[in-house]
From TrEMBL:
Protein name: ArsR family transcriptional regulator
UniProt keywords, alphabetically: Signal
SUPFAM superfamilies in the record: Quinoprotein alcohol dehydrogenase-like (SSF50998)
Gene3D superfamilies, A to Z: YVTN repeat-like/Quinoprotein amine dehydrogenase
Signal peptide: 1-25
Length: 456
């Protein structure tokens, strides 16, 4: 059982108080599992995520692991029953890492991944693409398309005109059920459409970083109100793409291959506590950029986990504190309409920070599921920023075999409804509450929730 009760929530309060004074230097011992849970205000379901142990986990809201797939996921993509021939509990996963790794290989750039697959609830392979003899080097994203094909982000080494060194080319490929590539797009062929200034291009080339773009999102735009209103740039089958290292997000037209819409790379200076309705300010190293799907609050707006790590050409200036944010952006006006920062939960901004990986997803009740990836911390917030569920991954492991450390990092977290899993899959919905008389920093505690400690 991965769930915890009040004692864990108390420990969490101590942990959060410690991080407020140590600038996110995590203690060597801290709570894992569900640390806080308000069933009445949370949106309840199963949470799917890849663990630091290089396995894929499905938990309930109390942190009980209800299922596990012994496959690494970069990331796991849940398939609907309609997408999986009527069966529940199917995933797209990374099937295997390559036995022989090319130069520059790391999990972050995808040059470690030999094959991807669809697996069923029991882990049986239903479809796969790639092999040890012919690795596909998938990374960061893949999706099942409405026509039954799969959209896969890939990597390869390439010589590119204007560069004095080989680059890691980021590709997007549509693959049919026979493993045939039926559509391809290569980022290196479209650098002049990404909005780099002359100085930015010089900085990019002078960096001698072969992974200078480091794409981390490739997702169909999906049905949306902008296309319904006549803006063809937002055609549902166009591809929304994000570059983590270059701070630019753009839409690729499926017919022409051209970039037809973008934000970044150069934006106004960061205003972390600025008013809503302002133009989007400088994002740095963002992840999981997507349009909120139809039927959810905020549908049609961009949801962005803005890491505020190190990125940009030249490197973008950040705020005084190392702190992340989640922003919701109207892609038509380019203005921020909602944001989450650590201080919205009654803490200092730097208590919410992940310099890499991470994700944010809007939920049907208006809450947002956030993955603070580098710390393996998943939490759900209301529109006002109140934490109503919090979980710390207990699954540790090494990203690469030769690493001299372990991590519980979580690349991406997604909530699926209970009926996504086969009938009879158990789940628990028991409140996990802190003792606010002792730890006012814990989630769910605040003014009026605890006695005045100065009087004790």
């Amino acid at each position: 059982m991965m769930s915890r009760r009040g004692s864990v929530a108390v420990l969490l309060g101590a942990w959060l108080m410690a991080t407020a004074t140590t600038a996110l230097a995590l203690p060597s011992s801290f709570p894992t599992g569900t640390t806080y849970y308000d069933p009445e205000r949370a949106y309840n379901g199963f949470v799917l995520f890849p663990g630091g142990d290089r396995k894929t986990h499905l938990i309930d809201m109390n942190g009980n692991e209800v299922h596990r797939w012994d496959y690494e996921s970069f990331p796991p993509i849940p398939l609907s029953a309609e997408q999986a021939g009527g069966e529940k509990g199917h995933l797209l996963v990374q099937l295997a890492r390559a036995d022989k790794l090319p130069e520059h290989a790391s999990p972050g750039n995808g040059l470690t991944n030999a094959a991807v697959a669809e697996v069923n609830w029991d882990g049986e392979v239903q479809w796969h693409w790639g092999s040890q003899q012919d690795p596909v080097y998938q990374h960061h994203d893949m999706r099942r398309l409405s026509n039954g094909n799969n959209l896969v982000m890939t990597a390869e080494m390439r010589e590119l005109n204007g560069f004095d060194y080989p680059i890691i080319e980021n590709g997007i490929e549509e693959v049919d059920d026979e493993g045939q590539v039926v559509w391809t797009w290569k980022a290196g062929d479209h650098l002049d459409e990404m909005g780099f200034s002359d100085a930015g291009l010089r900085s990019l080339k002078d960096s001698e970083d072969p992974d200078f773009l480091h794409l981390n999102t490739a997702v169909p735009v999906g049905p949306n109100r902008w296309y319904d209103a006549g803006d063809e740039r937002f055609a549902p089958d166009n591809i929304l793409v994000n570059s983590r290292n270059a701070n630019v997000t753009f839409i690729v037209d499926r017919q022409s291959g051209e970039i037809v819409w973008r934000i970044g790379p150069d934006l106004p200076a960061l205003q972390l506590n600025g008013k809503l309705g302002r133009p989007v300010d400088q994002t740095v190293g963002s992840h999981d950029v997507h349009l909120i799907p139809k039927g959810l609050p905020g549908a049609g707006n961009l949801l962005i986990f803005d890491n505020q790590g190190n990125a940009g050409f030249p490197p973008s200036k950040q705020g005084f504190f190392s702190s992340s944010r989640v922003i919701e952006v109207n892609p038509s006006s380019g203005k921020i309409v909602w944001q989450y920062t650590g201080n919205m939960s009654g803490r200092s901004p730097y208590t919410f920070y992940s310099s890499f990986i991470s994700s944010a997803r809007r939920l049907p009740n208006g809450n947002t599921l956030i993955d603070e990836g580098q710390n393996g911390r998943l939490f759900q917030v209301t529109p006002a920023g109140e934490i109503v569920w919090e979980y710390v991954s207990p699954f540790f492991g090494k990203s690469m075999p030769n690493d001299d450390y372990v991590t519980n990092q979580v690349y991406r977290a997604q909530l699926v409804d209970y009926d996504w899993a086969p009938a009879g899959t158990p789940h628990e919905e028991t409140a996990v509450m802190p003792d606010c008389d002792i730890y006012v920093a814990a989630p769910g505690c605040g003014p009026g929730d605890a006695d005045d400690l100065s009087e004790q």
